[in-house]
Input
Amino acid sequence: MKQIKIEGNNILSGSIKVSGAKNSAVALVPASILSDDIVTIDNVPNISDIDALNEILTYLGAKVKRKDSIIEINSNTIKNKEIKEDISKKLRASYYFMGALLGKYKKAVMFFPGGCSIGERPIDLHLKGFEALGATVKNEGNKYIVEAEELKGANIYLDIASVGATINIMLAAVKAEGKTIIDNAAKEPEIVNVATFLNNMGASITGAGTSTIKINGVKHLKGCFHEVIPDRIEAGTYIIMGALCGENLKIENIIPEHLDSVLLKLKEIGCNFKIHEDYIIVSKSDNYKRTNIKTLVYPGFPTDLQQPFTVLLTKCNGTSKVTETIWENRFMHVPYLNEMGANITIKNQTASILGPTNLIGKEVVATDLRAGAAMVIAGLIAQGTTTIQNVEHILRGYENIIEKLENVGAKISLIEI
Ligand code: EPZ
Output
């Protein structure tokens, strides 16, 4: 079992390069099977979620070659078959194979996907979209059989602007006959990255990044070269570290406008940072003002940075409030932060953080990916040593996090116990 060990209270300075966006790459890899040719994707982060998706591709018979951050996928040898439960459950994003297999072969058989325990994580909106396109959905326990004689374009309204459902319906609709309109679509940058990928293959998608996406079905999707956008959540995580213990810490390879809501909040508390074209320089300050945060769909404050930002709020003067509106169980980091010396109370879906408090290093657990990131941040500013268990959660979403932090002065190591 692996653990992360951190000696706190060290200044971080130097530069950290942000990797490709996990939440885009985990959709691009399954989407590649829609092509009748070879696709090449660059800037793919080297994280275990991508390994798990490549395992599914190989299991289906695709040929996958990876060299550094470039993945080449040849799906011409795929034989569409049931994706077994053990690999379906490895990650939430395995569900993108439903949309891709349905879109290409008109049939997908797989099991309810895995993912962090931050909520019940239903897929009803995905299935509703597939049915609107003409598919039937049979559900035997955890197994889903989604198939269609033919897929016809439809008008689909999403009750919730779901990232996964928006992308999955796009994958199922790109080769459907006629026009599909997705209303109340999610607007995250990762969706634009996936739509651009499909259009590079020859799809006809407009409106990605707005709440109405239009898809005209095409017969054939060719090979293409595509690049994963920088990871705005990874970038935000490191910027928060810089705000807490950085000295001119440079976070590079970012798209600043993808972080507007986060940068506005950092400005509000009095954070000292300077934005450049594709990087940001951030330094710590010892006198932050309180603020309130409410997580919302893009372009609102991202739920995936709520937990990391909460650690920063422990250093703000007064009571800050964090309201989580997307996931019903995304405060599992709080008991561990309180054990380290934070003063956080939770009522319904709002955490109240009284600051400033000083954190002391403790033995803590990464309960999910972004709670794990919050534990790393807490360990970096705590007095003494922090050890984090269940670090697989962290390693599946942050490429080379140990090396990236060691390179800027953190006393952090990954130990095998
Ligand atoms: C994506 O999850 C991200 N994961 C999540 O990031 C992120 O928190 C989330 O979007 C919101 O931004 C990936 O992209 C792999 P949703 P997804 O469908 O697509 C409800 C991380 O830390 N809903 O937008 O699963 C759902 O319960 C991860 O990187 C339904 O009710 O999220 C939630 O309340 C964690 N029915 C809300 O919608 C559905 O069919 C938003 O979920 C689908 C979703």
User: Anything to note?
Assistant: The longest strand covers residues 316-323.
